[in-house]
Amino acid sequence: MSDNRSIMQRLIDAGYPVSEMDHHESDLYVYATKLAFDTILTWLDDNGYRFDVMVDVFTDQITGRKMYDIAFGYDPYWNDKCGRMIDNG
């Protein structure tokens, strides 16, 4: 059975707090936690994507914490641009 949930939805379903998500345009930013890492790796594997292509790691300038920048992962961007409706609560 395939899992068609977006990476944003998978993170939310796994318990990653929406309040700790950010974005720029269509890219989703989440803090580099074990939960986020494990969820991202599963999503990448399920979809045949590579970490080095879909995810960048950077340091948040405000908190100093590492974050993942997930390309094209911010669902509301696609809702606005394409009419794709994903309800993330």
In short:
The chain has 89 residues and is of the alpha+beta class. The chain has one domain.
Task: Describe the protein in words.
Helices cover 38% and strands 21% of the residues. With 89 residues, it is an alpha+beta fold. It has one domain (20-82). It has a 4-stranded antiparallel beta sheet with strand order 1-2-4-3. A hairpin with a 6-residue loop joins β3 (55-59) and β4. α1 crosses α2 (34-47).
Number of domains: 1
Question: What is the straight-line distance between the termini?
Answer: 24 Å
Structural class: alpha+beta
Helix content: 25-40%
Radius of gyration: 12 Å
| Annotation field: number of helices | 4
The poorly predicted ranges are none
Mean pLDDT: 92
Largest pleated sheet: 4 strands, antiparallel
Number of strands: 4
- What is the beta-strand fraction? 15-25%
Q: What order do the strands of the largest sheet run in, or round the barrel if closed? A: 1-2-4-3
* Shape descriptor: globular
**Secondary-structure element pattern, one letter each:** HEEHHEEH
